[in-house]
Target: Lipoprotein
Amino acid sequence: MRKNIFICVSILLFVGCSMNTRTLKKTETEAVIQGIGMTEFEAREAALKEIQGIFPEYKESKPMECKQEYYVSGRTMGSGANQQYSASGSTYYSCIVYAAKK
Model:
């Protein structure tokens, strides 16, 4: 799961793509989609666009969940007195849409 989030965040930061989605659950009658973006609006729009591609007509089975998330990673290089620590992090938004086919 962390690896998938890291990949999504990497795509957002390094490729310049501002929106991305992940399918968390998909059946013939319902779907759960996560939208990821640099803003809450982008994350929400990405998730809704993906849902509309799956079900042209749908209803939300649960309220949409949006939150700001922070991903950080770090590592230690060297040893002894020359040891250095390097860290980086990024903030992104995640919105999860729960949809049922009408």
Observations:
- Residues 35 and 46 are 5 Å apart (CA to CA).
- The first strand starts at residue 19 and ends at 26.
